[in-house]
Amino acid sequence: MLDARAVGIVASAAIISDFMIIASRIGMMESIQRLESNPRVESAAFWFTALTGSAASIFVLLASFLVRSWGNAPEVANVLVIMSAIPVLAAVTAIPEGIIRRSLNFRALTFRTWVATLIGAGVAIAMVQRGFGLYALAGQRVTSAFCSMILIWAQAQWRPHFRPAIAPAYEVIRTGSMILVGSFSGLINQHIADSITAIFLEIGRAHV
User: Fold this and answer.
1) CB–CB of 156/96 below 8 Å?
2) pTM greater than the 0.85 cutoff
3) Is 58 exposed, middle or buried (0-12, 13-18, 19+ CB in 10 A)?
4) pLDDT tens, position by position, 30-41
5) What is the pLDDT of residue 68?
6) How many whole angstroms separate alpha carbon 91 and alpha carbon 20?
7) Which residue, among 94, 108, 187, has the nearest Cα to 154 in the 3D structure?
8) pLDDT at 204 over 60
9) Which end of the chain, N or C, is less packed with Cβ atoms under 10 Å?
C-alpha cells in the first residue's frame, strides 16, 4: 500500500534521527556495561544522557524547520517532527540497557526487541489502513522506540538516584565520548550508500 517514495522519504529523515540517537546516548550503554555496579555513578550517567537526549530531540525538531524553510520537502520535515521523540526515548534507555547487558541477560533484550518490533509493525499496518500513508512508517519507529523504553525499564528493575555522584561519573562520560566516535564511524559507513543514492536520484529527478 506504500510506494518506494514513501520508504525513501522516511529513510532520508531517519539518517538525521539515527545520528542523533547515537549522539544522545554518547556511548553510555557500553561504558556502564563494562563497569562494576555503582548506583550513584549510574544515576549521574542517566541524568547526563537524559539531558543529551533532550538536546538531540530538540536538534531534530530544529532540523525539521530548516528542511521546511530551505528545501522543497515538507513531508521530510513532517516525518522529522514525528521522529523527534526517538532520540530522547533512546537516551533514557541507555543506562538500564547497559545494566542488563552487564548481567548478561540477553534473553530479556531479545524479548524486548521482538515485542517492540511486532507492536511497531502492528501500529504501522493499522495507520496505513486508516490512510496515514508514509507517516505510518514514522509512527512505526516511534512506537517501537517507546515500547522498547517501557520494556527495558521493566526488565532492569533499576531507578536513578536524585543525588548522583558527579565526580566519579566523569570517567564514565569520558569513556562514553570515545565510544561515541567509533559509533559515529559505523553509522556513517551504514548510511553513506543511502545518502549517495538519494543525492543522485534527486539530481536525476531535477533533470527530468
Assistant:
1) yes
2) no
3) middle
4) 888 877 887 888
5) 84
6) 10
7) 108
8) no
9) C
